[in-house]
Every structure is written in structure tokens, then in C-alpha cells.
Recover the amino acids of this structure.
């Protein structure tokens, strides 16, 4: 038997086929360049595109938004569960637990037919922001804010979190970040979801596993580390020296580097402008905070320059996302859940694609252990 090719971390390996997304020639979702989607569409349209395969007509979008808005609620036992979690439970861990539990209450839970999967996907798209916002408020001892049916995915989430409507600028910035986060081919969490459902498991199991994979700081967890990096750098005066010595200590600068993009991530460039504009906007109403935010934008520019010259490494989407959400006064442990609230659209599209044309995903391992040896009776094992 010939030894199959081995690539550590599966780098460069083609592990399946998909019609949902490609990174070749610039990231695109179902044939549309992500920059064009961010410029011309809302997240709600992009979620429809990922789940249903085409951009919606105005009527299709209205019907989709109506279905999703009507599903913006979770059964009372889920709220009890969120309240019963230990107070140190992170929002992402709470979300992972809640998505698993939501599977028990979904009438289509065990049905893997295409239409049933679409119904479950739309429900989870609606329920995930509710879970994040409810857990956030319950953990603070605040009453939950009922979802609004007249608001978009982004606007309703901010409303449920804060109890007041967000400004159009905040809604737009969050919405664009959700478009950019929505889908990314065979990234770790999506691949995890596909592996899980390839056993003919179910959508809720796949999404629960995907959230677990997203959590790590090499993947979605990186956006919660961005402000740590900026704070640790000490600001514009010290950032260059700090970055160089962090690199000399072989530390990873979270928000930089990518397995696939070696010359830059187009998404980071798009969202950077929104982070900068938010800092400028805040400055007009709150000079002190605006000055602080500008300081982090300036620091970010310096770290970007040092990373490019020292490591030929460029920011990924998490770098501006962490700063944008901080400028919006969103608490840092919410950043990866926000990623999940968007990526649920891509995850679900992949789960559906996998189950529509399934073959068990079961690769091989290159064995590095001891050669075959005899089992000694226990008395002879020294
Ligand atoms: N800062 C400093 N050094 C780095 C970084 C970084 N951000 N990323 C990679 N390196 C170094 C790494 O230390 C290693 O050096 P050496 O060869 O001397 O040991 C070399 O580059 C190769 O690292 P690798 O982990 O084998 O490379 P990879 O292509 O598998 O890594 C990555 C991709 C995203 C895991 C990595 O770049 C990283 O850890 N970045 C920081 C975390 C991060 O921002 N993750 C978000 C990824 S994109 C969006 C998302 O999924 O959320």
C-alpha cells in the first residue's frame, strides 16, 4: 500500500467540494465578491444567499425576514438554563450549551431532509442573537428585552442587548462585519460541522461542535484578544518596540496571519474603515473616549507596519472587528459570539450541502507510535 500524502494541519489539502464559497481570486460567496456584497447588500440578504443559493428578490427578502423575526424567541427552559449556568460561564460557552439544548425543542431536530434543515437553520439564525442577548442580561441581573420583529438581524441584536435602538451608523457597521464574518469555505469550525454531520448526525449537533471549534484563539477567539494586544503594546509611542520584542519572544500577535491569505485579507481592509469612522464619530460627542479610540487606531497602524516589515504578515478580519466592537462599547466576551451569530449562516449552508450529498469524512493518520509488540502478562511488566 502506498503512503498517502500528508500535510500538517491539512494545509493546502482539498478536503471536499463546495458551491458555497471560494477564496480563489478573492473571497466570494456563491459567486459574489465579498466586497460587492458588503457594499450593496445587507447581512439579511447575504444570509438568504448562503442558505438558499441566490440573492433574494424584494419579496423573498421580506418573507425571509418575516420568518426569521417570528422565530426570535427561545423556549422558557432555555432561559432557565442560561440563568442556571455558573456566573463565570463565558458568553460563547453559554451559546454552545444553549444551541445544543435548543435541539431538544426543535420539532425538526432529527429530520435531515433539505427543507427540514433549512427550517432549522432559519430558526437557529433567529435564536442565536436571542440567546446571546438574554444570557448577557440575565448574567447582569437585568430583565431580558423581547426581540423586535421590525428590525434587521444586526439592529435587533443591539436593541436586545441594550434595550434601546442603536444609531444607523452602528447598525450599518455591525451589519457589514456580519457580512464579512458570514462564510469562509473550509475553516476549522465549518469543517468541524461538516465532519459531525457526515456521520448522519444532525444540524444542531454540527453547529454545537462548530461553536466549540470557533472558540479557540487561533480561530474566532482571536477577535477577543485584539484589545489585549493594543493595551499591552502601551499605545503609539511604545507599540513598535513592544511588537518587535513580542515577536522576538515568539509570541503570536492575535488578529494577524492567516492559513490561506499570505498577502492580506480583503475583509480586514473593508472593516478597517468602519473602525476608523466609528472612532471619529465617537470623538464628536465624547472627546475623551474619541481620543482614546483614536489612540488605538494609531497604535493599530503602527503594529500593522511592524508586522508587515518584520514578518511579512498582515491583519485578518478579527483585527478591525475587535476595535470596531470596542468602539461600539460592546463588551469583549461578546465578540466571538457575534462572529457565531453571523457564521451560523455559513455553517448551516455547509451542513445542508454536506447532508444533501453525503459521504462520511474519515481521513487517515500517519502512525508515529511504536512498532507492533507482544502484550506481556501484567506480572511480567516490571
Ligand atoms: N503573530 C506572530 N507570529 C505568527 C503569527 C502571528 N499572528 N501567526 C503565525 N505566526 C508565526 C508562527 O509563530 C510560526 O512561526 P515559526 O515558523 O517561527 O514557528 C509561523 O508564523 C507559522 O505559523 P503557523 O501557525 O504554522 O501558520 P498558520 O498558517 O497555520 O497560521 C493562524 C494561521 C491564523 C493560526 C496564525 O497566523 C495565528 O495564530 N494568527 C493569530 C490568531 C488569529 O488572528 N486567528 C484568526 C484567524 S483568521 C479569522 C478567524 O478565523 O477568526
Amino acid at each position: 500500500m502506498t503512503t498517502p500524502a500528508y500535510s500538517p494541519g491539512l494545509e493546502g489539502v482539498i478536503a471536499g467540494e463546495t458551491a458555497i464559497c471560494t477564496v480563489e481570486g478573492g473571497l466570494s460567496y456563491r459567486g459574489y465578491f465579498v466586497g460587492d456584497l458588503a457594499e450593496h447588500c445587507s447581512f439579511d440578504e447575504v444570509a438568504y444567499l448562503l442558505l438558499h443559493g441566490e440573492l433574494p428578490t424584494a419579496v423573498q427578502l421580506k418573507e425571509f425576514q418575516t420568518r426569521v423575526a417570528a422565530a426570535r424567541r427561545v423556549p422558557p427552559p432555555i432561559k432557565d438554563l442560561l440563568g442556571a449556568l455558573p456566573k463565570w460561564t463565558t458568553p460563547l460557552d453559554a451559546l454552545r450549551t444553549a444551541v445544543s439544548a435548543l435541539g431538544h425543542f426543535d420539532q425538526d431536530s432529527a429530520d435531515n431532509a433539505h427543507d427540514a434543515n433549512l427550517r432549522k437553520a432559519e430558526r437557529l439564525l433567529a435564536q442565536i442573537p436571542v440567546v446571546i442577548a438574554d444570557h448577557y442580561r440575565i448574567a447582569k441581573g437585568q430583565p431580558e428585552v423581547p426581540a423586535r420583529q421590525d428590525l434587521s438581524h444586526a439592529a435587533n441584536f443591539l436593541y436586545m442587548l441594550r434595550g434601546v435602538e442603536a444609531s444607523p451608523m452602528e447598525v450599518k457597521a455591525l451589519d457589514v462585519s456580519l457580512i464579512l464574518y458570514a462564510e469562509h469555505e473550509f475553516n476549522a469550525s465549518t469543517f468541524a460541522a461538516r465532519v459531525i454531520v457526515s456521520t448522519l448526525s444532525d444540524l444542531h449537533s454540527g453547529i454545537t461542535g462548530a461553536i466549540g471549534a470557533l472558540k479557540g484563539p487561533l480561530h474566532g477567539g482571536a477577535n477577543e484578544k485584539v484589545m489585549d494586544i493594543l493595551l499591552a503594546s502601551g499605545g503609539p509611542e511604545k507599540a513598535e518596540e513592544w511588537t518587535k520584542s513580542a515577536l522576538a519572544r515568539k509570541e503570536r500577535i492575535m488578529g494577524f496571519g492567516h492559513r490561506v491569505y499570505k498577502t492580506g485579507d480583503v475583509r480586514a481592509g473593508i472593516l478597517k474603515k468602519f473602525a476608523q469612522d466609528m472612532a471619529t464619530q465617537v470623538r464628536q460627542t465624547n472627546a475623551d473616549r474619541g481620543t482614546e479610540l483614536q489612540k488605538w487606531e494609531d497604535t493599530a497602524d503602527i503594529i500593522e507596519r511592524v508586522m508587515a516589515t518584520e514578518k511579512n504578515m498582515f491583519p485578518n478580519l478579527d483585527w478591525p472587528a475587535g476595535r470596531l466592537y470596542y468602539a461600539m462599547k460592546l463588551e469583549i466576551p461578546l465578540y466571538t459570539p457575534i462572529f457565531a451569530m453571523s457564521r451560523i449562516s455559513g455553517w448551516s449552508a455547509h451542513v445542508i450541502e454536506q447532508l444533501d450529498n453525503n459521504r462520511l469524512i474519515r481521513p487517515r493518520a500517519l502512525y508515529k507510535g511504536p512498532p507492533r509488540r507482544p502484550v506481556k502478562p501484567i506480572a511480567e511488566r516490571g
Summary: The radius of gyration is 22 Å. The chain has a mean pLDDT of 97. The chain is about 60% helix and 0% strand.
